Amino acid sequence: MPADPDCIFCKIVAGDLPSTTIAETERAIAFMDINPGTRGHALVIPREHSRDLLEIAPDDLAACASLAQEIAGRAKDRLGADGVNLLNCCGADAWQTVFHFHLHVIPRYKDQPEKDALRLPWVPAPGDMDDIAAAGKELS
């Protein structure tokens, strides 16, 4: 898909907007998030414009996942992160705000509130097993 002239991530790929780029491959680019949730929060995007997870080409998705894995390892090795979250938001109702596929690579820091104030957006609790089975059947 050609670059979207209104997409800020396409503008970053083209070099028309500044970014703190930390890694690049032929298909993907990683740069620092300017609205970080934690110290070292980075974004990984495909060079080719894809609106979201449902639109991205499989090869671009694989390239983004591979680069995100590399950045996650760097966060642990170089920033001393205790863990890492990978997050993708697909659609406005799932918190997507930039409509160019991207993975958030979010370093997590145990017992370091100055670096990590993120909390789960829900409290995991057992679900209704019949509903779980019904949804599973629909997704099978």
Automatic annotation (TrEMBL):
Top-rank taxon, per record: Bacteria
GO molecular function terms listed in the Swiss-Prot or TrEMBL record: catalytic activity
Coiled coil: none
Cross-referenced InterPro entries: HINT, Histidine_triad_HIT, HIT-like, HIT-like_sf
Gene3D superfamilies found in the cross-reference section: HIT-like
Transmembrane segments: none
Active-site residues per Swiss-Prot or TrEMBL entry: H102 (tele-amp-histidine intermediate)
Start and end residues of each HIT domain: 8-115
Any one biological process term the GO annotation gives: nucleotide metabolic process
Motif (Histidine triad motif): 100-104
Protein's recorded name: HIT family protein
